[in-house]
Amino acid sequence: MIVKPRIRGFICTTAHPQGCAASVHEQIDYVQSQPKLDKPLKNVMVLGCSGGFGLASRINAAFSGGAATLGVSFEREASGNRTATAGFYNNIAFDEAARAAGLTAHTIDGDAFSDEIKAQVIATLKEHMGPLDLLVYSLASPVRAHPRTGELHRSAIKPVGEEVNIKSLNVDKGEVMMVDLEPATEEEIANTVAVMGGEDWQFWIDILREADLLAPGFRTVAYTYIGSELTWPIYWEATLGAAKLDLDRAAGEITQSLAQLPGGAGQANVVTLKAVVTQASSAIPVVPLYVSLLFKVMKEAGSHEEIIEHIYRLFASQLSHPETMNLDEAGRIRVDDWELADGIQDEVKRRWPLVTTENLDELGDLDGYKADFLKIFGFGFAGVDYEAEVDPTLGR
Ligand code: NAD
After folding, report:
1. Is the N or the C terminus of the chain less surrounded, counting Cβ atoms within 10 Å?
2. Rounded distance between C-alpha atoms, residue 293 and residue 284, angstroms
3. How far is the CA of 21 from the CAs of 13, 176, 252, in angstroms?
């Protein structure tokens, strides 16, 4: 079949296998063009390994840190006239590239919240890798079937407290408009915390510790976003922020639980990352407009980073140097400092009230936003023939 982007709202229902491979290779090439990490990594697990920040973390761990990696993600293979999901193709490209480079790589596809997948991970680590020195928690999911209660929790992307009337962007139409966002109920807030909060992260650490699969000095990080006050009504002060605050609670409890790790205490940190275009972030109202303005301002200032560059900076400047990490008062590692720099935020805030559908191209970077969005699904890579027939199953 010939694969073209088919966009429905904030998702693209097709993915290009060769384009996804090109995306993975481009990220590997970037990491290989940089100095290797000062501290090599031995065994690393990434939960949410197939796209966005998780994929970039796995690429850094493997190709910059020399690590054997185990990745877990929830992706769909091709069937009938449907392509596989982008993450499915990304995983294949990563595994092939890692093995070609002599690196151990195992990928497990399934629901990371479930006990079955946890058991499969334990078995795989015992058989093929051994104790972990780093676990990256990078899941972004709208639902979680709770393994103990069987309850299905669905997250809500809503303000907390009052209704919010706020500027947003219809990316498809390139239209800037006001949207009304209804506040979440208490139940919706609790459900969002159940899906995106820290409980599952803790379950993972507990089961790995009990199975003796944490190496001395083991580290674990979970990714969060705080961002600009402009997005707080729908992010940091909203349901998602409530869930992310729960990660801070979990980080403290995990660190305590790692104090007695044989051979050396462990450490859990939340990492605050910058805003980028991923499948997860495209679904959040207001964020695409903020990101369009932010990208334009950061590109003009020369401080814009692609996902892989941002995560390389995290690994090279922070995780490799625990003694000099840029921590905030809550113990979070901050690599969102470039996004939140005064000069950048002042300019984004100056543009925010001024931006309209008519001047969006001038004040914001909608083209950059759209290009990044298509790249998630493997579209827009030089050297890929998008008119050629492809086998969406990759012969599997
Ligand atoms: P993404 O959508 O690109 O990737 C999500 C990953 O989670 C995929 O690998 C997917 O397969 C996996 N996943 C989802 N549900 C799963 C399940 N049940 N079992 C196993 N795997 C599952 O997301 P992203 O934007 O890279 O987000 C990763 C983390 O980074 C999130 O915690 C997010 O809040 C955080 N973050 C994102 C941004 C941003 O701007 N995108 C900014 C800061 C922090």
Report:
1. C
2. 16
3. 17, 34, 38
Question: Given this model, what pLDDT does residue 75 score?
Answer: 98
| Domains in the chain with CATH codes | 10-157+185-285+303-337 (3.40.50.720)
Mean pLDDT by groups of 10 residues along the chain of 396 residues: 92 96 98 96 98 98 98 96 96 98 98 98 98 98 97 97 94 92 97 98 98 96 98 97 98 96 91 94 91 98 98 98 96 98 98 98 96 97 97 91
Annotated catalytic residue, options 235, 290, 312, 369: 235
Are 367 and 380 spatial neighbours (Cβ–Cβ below 8 Å)? no
Write the pLDDT tens digit of every residue in 320-342: 999 999 999 999 999 999 999 99
Distance 13 CA to ligand 1 centre (A): 17
Asked whether the beta carbons of 177 and 96 are under 8 A apart, the reply is no
Burial string for 157-187 (b: 16+ CB within 10 Å, else e) reads: bbbbeeebebbbbbbeebebeeeebebbeee
Are 196 and 240 contacting, i.e. CB atoms less than 8 angstroms apart? yes
Q: Which helix (H) or strand (E) holds 47?
A: strand 43-47
Q: Can you tell me the distance from the alpha carbon of 357 to that of 108, in angstroms, rounded to the nearest whole number?
A: 43
Distance from Cα 114 to the centre of ligand 1, integer Å: 17
Q: Is 103 helix (H, G, I), strand (E, B) or coil?
A: coil
Tally the residues of the chain.
Answer: 396
- The yes-or-no answer on residue 225 being catalytic is no
pTM: 0.98
